[in-house]
Every structure is written in structure tokens, then in C-alpha cells.
Design a protein that fits this description.
The protein folds into 3 domains: 84 residues, no CATH class; 165 residues, no CATH class; 76 residues, PDZ domain (Pdz3 Domain, Roll), CATH 2.30.42. It starts with a helix and ends in a 7-residue tail after the last helix. The protein has 5 helices and 24 strands. The strands form 5 sheets. A 6-stranded antiparallel β-barrel has the order 6-15-16-20-19-17. About 6% of the residues have low confidence. It has 387 residues and is mainly β.
Length: 387
């Protein structure tokens, strides 16, 4: 074998490895785009994934099916079979679909849940938000100057940022004022704090010290509420709402707030700070924190938004239009519209869906959209904080 033949053989081997590597990377990229879970409205529906010619090379195979636990099982009622029509009171059913490439290469096993397709009244209007934490949240510990001039940090390495103090010596502490009262009245004795730490209930002992003013303190910075302005996303036919589209996290700890409840208030946008390249804009507003402007009760704070129930629901939707919701696998790239109230009236504005991330790790980043509406661009420069 001469040198030229050896060289050709080496190049062919490298080319083969390159093709195999490219194929493996392409396969991994396809798998990464397929979500692990999807929802459908019909038990017999096999969802498309890519909405293009690539779908013709993908085969679908139902591999398993199971019904979700429900009250009907306890009474002996027969569970719904696949293919029956679902209604609002139907028991969700789940099954699994194995997607294969060219009918041979397994891509992913996807869990599909059958749920009724919802209709909602769209929001787009500004709202004031007030949240109460589930206990008093620890922000950080601090040093206390004692009566003799020394510095002490009683809670250091005992409580942690993100802890929720539920009680002190058995006395419930729902507010920071109540916590201060319990610490001030300790008389220099140890305090036993009942704390929720990442869902685990623990007891911690702290020995407060007397500061230079003669008051007992534990050296803990805390917070028990937060407020801000945001946007109402939707109200369903039962009066339940979703808002923001993202969870509310503490500004200091960065952790999602564990809440005991909260209130929605009417709010008005008073100014718009335009966004620019690298600098996000924002809506500035005024929140009417009074009983007469209360419009809803907040019950949950999740990664994908805040949820609860509206007050005076029928009157709020008298002139609103019902929209049918889509499942995430039904969303396609191209022209679309968003609804928002930035000038006092909720209107549709043109956008373009540039990218869809069905299997993104962040539930709040499922799409990349570009604002194309000239009016909205003139008002805000695009998408701004608080919209």
C-alpha cells in the first residue's frame, strides 16, 4: 500500500467518524426538542411534534395507558375508555407514546395527559399584587452591638437565608412585628424557633442578646410580605385566574416565595420606560391598596405564575371575549398576536414567534418572540418588564 492509499484510508476513517458524530449530535438535538410531557383533549390523539416535513419520518406508537386516581375508583364507577368524549368533570387519563425515527431509532417516550381544552377570558390588564409569606422569611443574619460595646451575631450559622420562621416557643409568628415582640419578651432566655427549611420542619435554638438600647435582639433580617405591579393573564369560566406568567421570587434570596396567600388590586399604568438594546424597559404604575379596589385572592405562587380566584368575576368579564387555549405542541412559528394594556385599553399587538422550545428547562422560556407591531414598538420599544 502506497502513501496515497494510506492517506485516502485515513481521510475516509476521519470522514466516517465525522458522519457518525454529526448523526449522533443531530439525534441528540432532535431528542432535546421533544417534551417529556404533553397534553391533549382527545384520548385517541397522537400529537405532531415539529409541524413540518420532518414529521413524516417520525412514527408514533402508544406503549402504555393508565387512568389517573380519582374519587370514582372508590365508588366502583367504571373508568373512561380511550376515545370517549371528555368534559369538565371527566377524569384525566394518561398514556405514553414512543416516538421513533424512520420507524427504527427510538427518540423519546412521552407521557400524554388527556385534559379538557379550556376556554378563558384574556387579561392583559395591569394589576397590583400583595403577597404574604407562609411564616416570616429569613433574609440574612446580622451583628448586634451589645451594651458593653462588643459585637454579637446570635443567629449566625443557625438560621439560613430562605428559612421561614413559623413560631417562637410555640407562639405562631405570621408577621415580622409578632416575631420582634416574641424576641423582645424573651428576658434573655433561649428561644426555640419552628422553621420550615426547603419543606423540612426543624427546630432551632437561638439565644438573643441585649443591644445598647436595652432591647433583646436575635440579629435576623426578615420579611413577611412583598408587593408589585404585573399583568393579569387570564380568567377561566369558573372565575379562577392566572397572572404574571412567572413566579415571584424574593429580591434578596432569589428563591421562589412560599406564600400563605395574597390579594390582587386594581392598578393603573402611569408611565412607560422604553426598552433599548441591553437595557430592559418597564411599566411604572400606581396600585390602589384599599378594600374597594380589591379584585382577587391569590392562592398559589408557582414557577409559571400566580394563581387564585377573582372577586366580582361575572361583572369583570361582561364585555370580554372567550378564547380557546392551545396545547404547547400546537404552537407554531410565524405571525401571532399578544394582548396587553399599556395605554389604558387592552388591544392586540402583532408579534412574530421566532423559536419554540417544547422541552426547555425553564417553564417561563418556551418561546422567543419578536414584537413587530409599530404601535407597540413606539410605545415600549418591544417587551418591557411588567407587561
Amino acid at each position: 500500500m502506497n502513501v496515497r492509499q494510506k492517506y485516502r484510508g485515513f481521510v475516509c476513517i476521519l470522514l466516517g467518524f465525522g458522519i457518525v458524530g454529526l448523526g449522533a449530535c443531530s439525534l441528540a438535538a432532535v431528542r432535546a426538542q421533544i417534551p417529556s410531557q404533553m397534553q391533549v383533549s382527545d384520548a385517541g390523539e397522537l400529537p405532531e411534534l415539529f409541524h413540518n416535513a420532518f414529521d413524516r419520518f417520525i412514527t408514533k406508537e402508544i406503549s402504555a395507558r393508565e387512568s389517573a386516581p380519582s374519587k370514582t375508583e372508590q365508588t366502583g364507577t367504571t373508568m373512561m375508555e380511550v376515545g370517549e368524549t371528555l368534559n369538565d368533570s371527566a377524569v384525566p387519563e394518561t398514556y405514553q407514546i414512543l416516538y421513533r425515527l424512520f420507524g427504527k431509532i427510538p427518540l423519546k417516550m412521552v407521557t400524554v395527559s388527556v385534559v379538557p381544552r379550556r376556554q378563558v377570558y384574556v387579561g392583559g390588564t395591569p394589576i397590583g399584587i400583595y403577597l404574604r409569606t407562609n411564616g416570616v422569611m429569613v433574609i440574612e443574619t446580622a451583628k448586634i452591638e451589645t451594651g458593653d460595646g462588643s459585637m454579637s451575631c446570635p443567629a449566625e450559622n443557625i438560621v439560613k437565608s430562605g428559612d421561614y420562621i413559623k413560631s417562637v416557643n410555640g407562639v405562631e409568628t405570621n408577621t415580622k412585628e409578632r416575631l420582634v415582640e416574641c424576641i423582645s419578651a424573651c428576658g434573655g432566655e433561649d428561644l426555640v424557633l419552628a422553621v420550615d427549611r426547603a419543606g423540612e420542619q426543624i427546630s432551632l435554638k437561638v439565644h438573643p442578646v441585649m443591644d445598647e438600647s436595652g432591647a433583646y435582639k436575635a440579629g435576623i433580617w426578615v420579611r413577611n410580605d412583598t408587593q408589585g405591579i404585573g399583568t393579569l393573564t387570564y380568567i377561566d369560566k369558573n372565575g379562577d385566574f392566572g397572572a404574571l406568567g412567572h413566579g415571584i421570587s424574593d429580591i434578596d434570596t432569589g428563591k421562589l416565595l412560599d406564600i400563605s396567600g395574597g390579594v390582587l388590586y386594581n392598578a393603573d399604568v402611569i408611565s412607560i420606560i422604553k426598552g433599548s438594546q441591553g437595557v430592559p424597559g418597564e411599566l411604572a404604575g400606581v396600585i390602589h391598596y384599599s378594600e374597594g379596589y380589591k379584585i382577587g385572592e391569590i392562592e398559589e405562587n408557582r414557577k409559571d405564575g400566580i394563581y387564585g380566584r377573582m372577586i366580582g368575576f361575572p361583572a369583570m368579564t361582561e364585555e370580554s371575549r372567550l378564547y380557546e387555549t392551545a396545547y404547547k405542541q400546537e404552537v407554531v412559528q410565524g405571525p401571532a398576536a399578544i394582548l396587553c394594556s399599556v395605554d389604558g385599553e387592552c388591544k392586540e399587538y402583532e408579534v412574530d414567534i421566532r423559536e419554540i422550545r417544547l422541552n426547555g428547562n425553564d417553564v417561563n422560556k418556551g418561546m422567543v418572540i419578536e414584537v413587530t407591531d409599530p404601535e407597540l414598538l413606539e410605545l415600549t420599544g418591544g417587551i418591557v418588564q411588567g407587561m
